[in-house]
Every structure is written in C-alpha cells, then in structure tokens.
Design a protein that fits this description.
By secondary structure, the chain is α+β, with helices and mostly antiparallel strands. Helix content is 45%, strand content 11%. The termini are far apart. The relative contact order is 0.10.
Length: 257
C-alpha cells in the first residue's frame, strides 16, 4: 500500500468517526459517498469541510478555501454588482473570480443574498453572505467540485416553517421531524457546532438541560428550536461565555490512585 493510499485511508477513518459522532447512524451509500469525497478532495469532517444535511453531503466555505490553499490558488477577486443590488431592500449581488495561477483567465461565480433567502440570524449581514456565495461558486468551478456548498442553500438559510410533529414510543414529539422538505433541526444544530467549533458532546448535554429532558431526542421540537436559536445567538454575541457555559457540562476526570 502506497503512502498516499495509507494517508487517504487514515483520513477516511477519521471522517467516519467524526461523522458518526455528529450525525449518528449513517446509511452505507452516504458513507460510500464520503469515502469518494475524502479520496478525491481530501475533505476533513473534523475541520468542518463537509456537512450532512437531509442525507446529502455539502461542502463548506472553509472546506473550499482549504482546497484553494492546498492547490496554491493564485488569487480571488470580488466585486459588488451595483446595478443588480438594492441597499434599501438589503439585496446584494457579487461577482467573484478565482485565479488558479498567475496566467489563469479566471473562473467566475455569482452570489446573491437578501432577507428572503438568508437566515434571520444573519439579518444585516446579507452583503457578506452574497460575497461568500459568489466565492464558493467560483471556487467550485475552478476546482471541478460538483458539490453544492452549505452557504449557497437559500432553503437552508430561510426561516423554518412549522412541521407536523410525530411522536416516539414515549409519547414525546420527535425534535428532528420534517415533513415539508426543510432541513431538520439536528442539521441546523450540527451546522452551528461546525461553524463555531463547539464540542458536540457538551452541546448535546447543554441542549438536554435547556430542554429539561434526559436526552435531546426526548425534547419537543419547540424546545429544540428555541435551543438552536439561543445557541446561535450566544455563539455570535459572546462565544467566550458560551464556551465557559459548555465546559460546565464536562464530566470530571477521575484521578488515578
């Protein structure tokens, strides 16, 4: 076995462990796709390169930037498309050009954002979201990545519509139920964990305490939704305080006799 093959095998095993820790049981076909993406692009789940949403893999902005860095991208240029933008309506359109080498003619991508296709949590930051989406599209074109990025998902960023709750064997509503095609709350929670580099075990412990249940799976959808909103706001406004809060849920380590 070559050194490169061994390295890819190690990376995939790491991806498999982190993916199971974040998303639980994963279908074999989804794992096969993860292995393919690992071998082809060197994506790392632990580093936040990938997200699993509704059974499909999506690349993140951080993952795309790491690919560009590894492949020695020469530069990225962005420009606001003033004619297509409207500051009053908070609608912004950007054009991004990725230059793989100094002599490259460039790969172009466009990105737009407005209150209708972004989350309320990023209200007021539509301009930055639009630029990120443009850069992501240009990077995907430049490096032949046929995988949509999380930041480009307008449906994921939009406010979640209420779904019909279903019950588990204990009579509690399932917190991750989704009957309207919207991303599940668990997917939103995993995205926040990745975006803000949080400890998933501590987040789950905090979530259960916040919802007043022994485990997160027993909490109602409304309580989980409230927790996701609270976590997002805390991570954005005072991450240091949030980390201290999460650390309070860490299990004490017993000293060796």
């Amino acid at each position: 076995m070559s050194h490169a093959t061994k390295k890819r095998s190690v990376v995939f095993r790491s991806n498999f462990r982190f993916a199971r820790a974040l998303w639980g049981v994963i279908p074999m076909v989804t794992l096969d796709r993860l292995k393919e993406l690992t071998e082809k692009y060197g994506f790392s789940v632990a580093a936040g390169d990938l997200m699993l949403l509704n059974g499909a893999w999506y690349v993140t902005h951080a993952g795309l930037l790491r690919i560009a860095q590894r492949r020695r991208c020469s530069g990225i240029k962005t420009s606001l498309q003033k004619d297509a933008s409207n500051a009053v309506a908070s609608r912004w359109v950007f054009r991004a050009t990725v230059y793989k080498s100094p002599s490259s003619r460039g790969f172009v991508g466009y990105g737009d954002a407005d209150p209708s296709n972004t989350s309320p949590l990023v209200r007021g930051a539509e301009m930055r979201v639009a630029e990120t989406r443009a850069v992501n599209r240009a990077l995907r074109k430049a490096y032949g990545i046929g995988l949509c990025s999380v930041e480009e998902l307008g449906s994921f960023s939009s406010p979640q519509r209420p779904s019909v709750a279903t019950s588990n064997s204990n009579g509690h509503p399932k917190s991750n139920a989704s009957t309207n095609g919207e991303p599940r709350l668990r997917d939103q929670l995993c995205l926040l964990i990745r975006q803000h580099n949080l400890d998933p075990t501590l987040v789950k412990a905090y979530a259960a305490d916040f919802c007043g249940t022994e485990s997160l799976k027993d909490a109602s959808r409304d309580r989980v939704e409230s927790f996701v909103t609270e976590l997002a706001a805390s991570a954005k406004n005072d991450r240091a305080a949030l980390i201290c809060k999460l650390n309070s849920y860490a299990q004490p380590v017993e000293a060796n006799p």
